[in-house]
Amino acid sequence: MVNQTREPKAGEVWLCDLGNNYKVNSSIQRGTRPCIVLNVLESNDPDNIDDEHLIYLILPLTKIIKKPHLPVHYVIEDWQEQGLNKRSMILGEQPFSLKRDYLIKHLTSLDNNTLDCARRTLLNAVDITYEKRYGIQTEEIS
To answer: Is the pTM of this model over 0.85?
Structure first.
């Protein structure tokens, strides 16, 4: 795997290796694709403090725009200004946690508004799942 020395930061788009978890009729993203880095998390192992033990929370992007009206999706309409080579949609329902080795190449950095929209898609995915599974509105949780 190609590995740049640059350290990923929140709001950056990286080419990532999501593996080849192939299942028929699966919508799970796989392969090598652009992804937004949402957050950089430290390992919960106190003995491992070097960069190899950082975890990157990412959301995949897709050029196939399906169901853009869903609250877990966000279409980046100003894709050219954001430095992307195609109109892309953020898939907030498919977060991944990756080690640094799986982030292959830095592609671009997004503006703060687009990063906020990406985070919102993930929050929407969590709330929707919780509400459907347990029948409780998120504002009822205390």
So the answer is: no
